[in-house]
Amino acid sequence: MALPAHPPAPPHDLPRTLGELRASGWESVPVSEELRRNAARRISAGEPLIHGVLGFEDTVIPQLENAILAGHDIILLGERGQAKTRIIRSLVELLDEWMPVVAGSEINDDPYQPTSRYARLKVADEGDETPIAWVHRSDRYGEKLATPDTSIADLIGEVDPIKVAEGRYLSDELTLHYGLVPRVNRGIFAINELPDLAERIQVGLLNVLEERDVQIRGHRVRLPLDVMLVATANPEDYTNRGRIITPLKDRFGAQVRTHYPQETRTEVAIMRAEASLPSCGLPVIVPDYMEEVLAEISQLARRSPHLNQRSGVSVRLTIANYETVVANALRRALRVGEPVAVPRVSDLAALLPSTQGKIEVEALEEGREDEVVAQLAAAAVLSVFRRRVTLEDPGAVVGSFGEGTVVHTGDDLPSADYLGVLAEMGPLEPPTRALAGPEAAESPALMAAALEFLLEGLHLTKRLNKDASGPRALYRRRR
Are residues 386 and 441 in the same domain? Predict the structure, then answer.
């Protein structure tokens, strides 16, 4: 979920004073109850708890629903690229769209039960005429990436020297500048990579959330905050790079384990939803089998003994590879003047730059990244070929390669070259057309992509020989 950069303006018919708010019948409830109420409404209506997260419907989401209905703070454990941050940000949708606060409050003071000294004085002085402001739910969310240099001032607050310079006494609570946690009072506060937070800072966070009592530069301030705390952690980092102090870990009522997409079709759906595809004025058609190949590469990478599985293989790898293959196909279409861009197997040679930064090879495999990526791509093509292609007469297809007959492929060859091959080698045409689909008759680019996939599958099933040099290849009959 992308939080809006600029929240909308509140409707004009909302109460504007404390008296009007009381007359409207608005009731103040804890944020946990607010989330529980809205989650229950979605569950009973058969609506998804959160939108835009795929593959967790039967695993993560039920645990998340239980945690919210129970009113628990939550920690999400999972490797990189498992949508942990997206899940947390999506919880904002479960808050009421608008929430009343004392106008001018820095910490979203409840008009009925003000917390800060400013709001308490305001309500005491003006009573039912106290002005009310309305805060959009997107402003009730705060997020901090935990780093070793994060301070108590960042999270809780600090004395504001400007307010002191304006003439206030250091002993005056109004000199305080509140940190991130108090500023999302009555909302959701998220900490990403919690184990990276220094232990003394974790103690301070625990104090304000559990004991409601914190000292800021000599000020003993009671802050009865109402905050839902959500955190993320990588299991590997949790044990090796840092730890969550036991009292703070105990503060979380639910620990939810995330995971990578468990099926290729789920990975394809995420890839389609998240990828940003260039066009440059040309239409782009990505065949289903090529989408499956790209998703299968990531699925195989997560089981590969050549890769460091503790660092994980993010779904971002699938998305980046998808965008790269499309870009390579688009570059070809622009160069040879074709009206449509269709990725081919030869475009997989372009995946090395988009893959290297998202995988970590084992120490014994260092320096062989290009070979490891090529092996993953070949294994993915073979897996998809076996699922998708059934040759009615494989002998005739292979037999069309006479003695000395070769077929050239490459990511820089125009589609017309492939149509010429099909015209000369008739048995290749039916399986190529069946793979290309109903639009093949009007799209030479789709036929070219299907023929490349068919040839590569025949090679990987040991029916054809292949000589390759980068994205160029030559297929011939096996001897």
Answer: yes
Q: What is the pLDDT averaged over residues 301-328?
A: 91
Last residue of a domain, one of 257, 291, 324: 257
What is the Cα–Cα distance from 382 to 405, expressed in whole angstroms?
Answer: 23
Residue given tokens 């409840």 in the structure block = 110
C-alpha dihedral, 338 to 341 to 347 to 350, nearest 10°: 100
- pLDDT, residue 178, reads 83
Distance of CA 225 to the CA centre of its chain: 30
> What letter would DSSP give residue 465?
E
Q: Do 253 and 284 lie in a common domain?
A: no
What is the count of structural domains for the chain? 2
Residue of 365, 237, 379 lying closest to 299 (CA atoms):
379
Q: Structural domain of residue 229, as residue ranges? A: 18-257
pLDDT at 237 over 60: no
Backbone angles phi, psi at 256, to 5 degrees: -110, 125
Identify the domain boundary among 210, 231, 257. 257
- In terms of pTM, does the model score above 0.70? yes
What's residue 101's pLDDT? 97
Averaged pLDDT score across all residues of the chain: 89
For range 124-132, the mean pLDDT: 96
In this structure, are residues 326 and 284 in contact, taking their beta carbons and an 8 Å threshold?
yes
Q: Which of 83, 429, 377 shows the shortest CA–CA distance to 257?
A: 83
Q: Residue 235: which CATH number?
A: 3.40.50.300
Residue 11 counted as domain residue: no
Residue 76 domain-assigned? yes
- d(C-alpha 331, C-alpha 268), whole Å: 23
Collapsing DSSP to helix, strand or coil, 143 comes out as: strand
